[in-house]
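Predict the 3D structure for this chain.
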Amino acid sequence: MIEQTHKKACAVDLMTVRVPVVKPNATIGDAVALFRKKMKDYDTVNYVYVVDAKQLVGVFSIKAFFAANKAKKVSEVMKTKLAFAHPHTHEEKVALLAISHGIKEVPVVDKEMNFLGVVPQENIFKVLHKARIETALRSAGIHKFNDPAKDIITAGALVHIQKRLPWLVLGVVGGIFAAFVVGFFEKALKAQLVLAVFIPTVVYIADAVGTQTETIFIRSIALDQHLALRKYLAREAKVALFLGLVLGGLNALGAFLWLKSVAVSVILFASIFSASLAAVGMAILLPLVFMRTHRDPAMGSGPFATIITDILSLVIYFAVASLLLGKIS
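Done. Predicted structure below.
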């Protein structure tokens, strides 16, 4: 079995050729006898692959293999609806194929459907483990470790500083700009000083809604390369409207019960509703922009998305407050 390297691997780098293979015209009984004879030679025995003149034509699980009538031909019991990868299919796409089709391993074929081998369950788990670590690092604004599963542990302090500092500096810039936004709306704060109390609430809700939306969207486009974008956006618009109404309403009700202020309650409702809609929009727009520029859409998550959402939610909050307070006064 070929081991996974530190570099981004493809299906051909992860596959093994030592798997059970039978011909479609063989009987199940003959195939079982052959399987038992060669069992020690196999690297993986989750499935039996049916190959006719080098072409992959079917597959069945080892459980179905032994449960089938021994007198039947392999072609009578095999499944012909196949999920497969090509030699240069990226390792993460191979893992996503396994997840989306509910299979333990992924066969590898060339353009003519010639059977080349199988990416076994063990290597799929390794890819998923590495991908999970990469996603976690990416969300923290840390990128470009060759093998993040190992390098992040063994890297020295200087390397960590180089990887982590740029996004944090960007966060400082974003924080200064956010402070400028708050200062710009000083009049609104003076008119209703209690508005400052709800700044963390508005910012948090916008961040949380945006993070949820972005995570689900990136996962969706990763699992479905032909995602119907219009239908997806229509659904997310409905979800955003509902979330905005509920979250805005709950905060407005809480503020009214606490402060007995209609003005603050209306401001909170309108701000959280609008900020939630804006957060959902940015959570989908950013990954799309990254995709259009041929970059990893997950790069739009983490500190970068958080900074934009924070500033946007503050602008919305104080703009709504200034507008409504002006009308009330």
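The chain has 13 helices and five strands.
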